[in-house]
Design a protein that fits this description.
92 residues, single chain, 3 strands, 18% strand, 3 helices, alpha+beta, three-stranded antiparallel β-sheet
Length: 92
């Protein structure tokens, strides 16, 4: 059942630390997710909202990766993304 299918996402960002001892603010990561990823995935029929692709966990993870890479502030790097399709199965 597509409506019962849930995913979990973990994102690892490498960020420079500024003079105040702060790296990229979590709020900025959340904003990227909310503006460029969540609207396409959360409570959606992803076959209708994502670009045309075979909506495997691998392809969805690559699409999410591309969204983060395109919108992270300069100097920050996406190092790892893990997408769980179930509590026991994920793609990194």
């Amino acid at each position: 059942d597509l409506l019962q299918h849930t995913y979990e996402l973990e994102v690892h960002v490498q960020s420079p630390v500024n003079k105040m001892g702060l790296a990229l603010d979590f709020n900025e990561v959340d904003a990227i997710f909310n503006q460029h990823v969540k609207t396409y995935l959360h409570q959606q029929l992803i076959n209708e909202t994502l670009p045309e692709m075979n909506t495997t966990a691998e392809n969805i993870a690559m699409w999410i990766w591309d969204q983060f890479e395109a919108h992270l502030p300069e100097g920050n790097t996406l190092n790892q993304l893990e997408l769980w399709e179930t509590k026991d199965h994920s793609v990194i």
